[in-house]
């Protein structure tokens, strides 16, 4: 243990030793209840399944592979086998433990599946192949999305009425945006795109973030309340996505909140969504996108305004001061020639 290089080897060796030990402990613990539920037990679909015998399967856990021995039943009506113990442990039809699946979901949502497999191997000492990571990330992701969609539908039909938050915030912010995400060819097959040959290499993902901000920082700027953000992401078109956002707002207590604020980049679909789902909300183009639009406007008018950098600086100052009328007036200055018309002579300095 004299040098840093020695420690790296020792700590990894000890961790893998402890993992191995833990896997043995977990195996012994799980063996204590092999899941025998009598000669017959419910199959989950309303029938009785008969006990067949004990069967083993290996589950990859946070501690490494663990052999799980459990009672196996067969339902003659469903013509399928099942292990009640698997359902209880959250490993029905899968061979990854809930703990490992959480790692897969976390890493798989942040980086490519092969990189996620590498990360899990390096950080947690669990060997998974990229296809295995992909399969579980996609399956669990689809299940999570179905739950969100089902809950949104239940809120919409009022089969589910969310409890108001306690305390009820004064303002709830709903930020909505859309962006193109790169896709593998299989995901964009048959979809029209912007490539020269009509292919699509991205798909638009729509994002929603709901949050509150109740305090100000030292400069007087609002601070987002820690832990107040909830997120939505979907490939759905604007209309069904709007229902998801509305349901999430309802879940966050929108019916009890004094003021809703919808933040967007100015894209028409966002204001259509806001007007349809949140008619009483204040609609705000967020400052970053508003500045981006002013930059684009300055670029467009650069050939015609006398001093483009100064013109841009003046408009940004007006934006910061909230003087939108001044920006519109400057952009529609009658001294500029109209598109398609000949520049008038003698009116410009
Ligand atoms: Zn059955």
Q: What does this molecule look like?
A:
This protein has 349 residues and is α+β, with helices and mostly antiparallel strands. It has 11 helices and 11 strands. It has helices at 4-31, 84-89, 98-108, 113-124, 130-156, 185-188, 238-251, 268-277, 287-301, 308-320, 324-331, and strands at 40-42, 48-61, 64-75, 80-82, 171-182, 202-211, 215-216, 222-223, 230-234, 259-264, 282-285. α5 (130-156) packs across α7 (238-251), α7 (238-251) crosses α8 and α9 (287-301) runs antiparallel to α10 (308-320). The N and C termini lie far apart (80 Å). It binds zinc ion (ZN). Residues 43, 45, 47, 75, 77-78 line the site of zinc ion (ZN).
SSE diagram, text form:
Blueprint: H1 4-31, E1 40-42, E2 48-61, E3 64-75, E4 80-82, H2 84-89, H3 98-108, H4 113-124, H5 130-156, E5 171-182, H6 185-188, E6 202-211, E7 215-216, E8 222-223, E9 230-234, H7 238-251, E10 259-264, H8 268-277, E11 282-285, H9 287-301, H10 308-320, H11 324-331
Parallel strand pairs: 5-10, 10-11
Antiparallel strand pairs: 1-2, 2-3, 3-4, 5-6, 6-9, 7-8
Helix pairs in contact: 3-4, 3-5, 4-5, 5-7, 7-8, 9-10
């Amino acid at each position: 243990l004299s040098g840093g290089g020695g420690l790296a080897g020792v700590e990894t060796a000890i961790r893998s030793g402890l993992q191995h030990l833990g896997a043995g402990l977990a195996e012994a613990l799980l063996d204590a209840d092999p899941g025998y539920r009598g000669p017959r037990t419910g199959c989950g679909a309303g029938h009785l399944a008969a006990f067949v015998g004990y069967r083993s399967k290996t589950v990859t856990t946070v501690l490494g592979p663990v052999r799980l021995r459990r009672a196996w039943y067969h339902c003659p009506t469903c013509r399928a086998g099942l292990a009640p113990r698997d359902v209880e442990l959250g490993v029905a039809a899968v061979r990854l433990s809930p703990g490992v699946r959480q790692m897969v979901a976390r890493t798989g949502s942040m980086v490519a599946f092969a990189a996620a497999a590498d990360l899990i191997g390096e950080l947690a000492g669990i060997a998974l192949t990229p296809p295995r990571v992909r399969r579980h990330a996609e399956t669990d992701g689809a299940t999570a999305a179905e739950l969100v969609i089902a809950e949104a539908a239940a809120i919409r039909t009022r089969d589910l009425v969310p409890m108001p938050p306690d305390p009820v915030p004064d303002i709830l912010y709903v930020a909505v945006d859309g962006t193109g995400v790169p896709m593998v060819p299989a995901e964009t097959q048959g979809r029209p795109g912007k490539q020269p040959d009509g292919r699509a290499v991205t798909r638009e993902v729509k994002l929603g973030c709901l949050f509150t901000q109740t305090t100000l920082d030292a400069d007087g700027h609002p601070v987002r309340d820690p832990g107040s953000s909830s997120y939505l992401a979907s490939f759905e078109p604007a209309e069904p996505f709007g229902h998801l956002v509305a349901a999430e707002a309802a879940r966050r207590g929108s019916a009890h909140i004094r003021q809703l604020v919808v933040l967007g980049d100015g894209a028409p679909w966002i204001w259509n969504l806001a007007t349809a789902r949140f008619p009483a909300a204040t609609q705000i183009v967020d400052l970053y996108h508003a500045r981006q639009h002013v930059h684009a406007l300055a670029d467009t008018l650069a050939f015609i305004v006398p001093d483009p950098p100064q013109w841009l600086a003046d408009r940004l100052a007006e934006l910061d001061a909230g003087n939108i009328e001044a920006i519109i007036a400057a952009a529609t200055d009658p001294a500029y020639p109209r598109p398609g018309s000949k520049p008038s002579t003698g009116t410009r300095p």
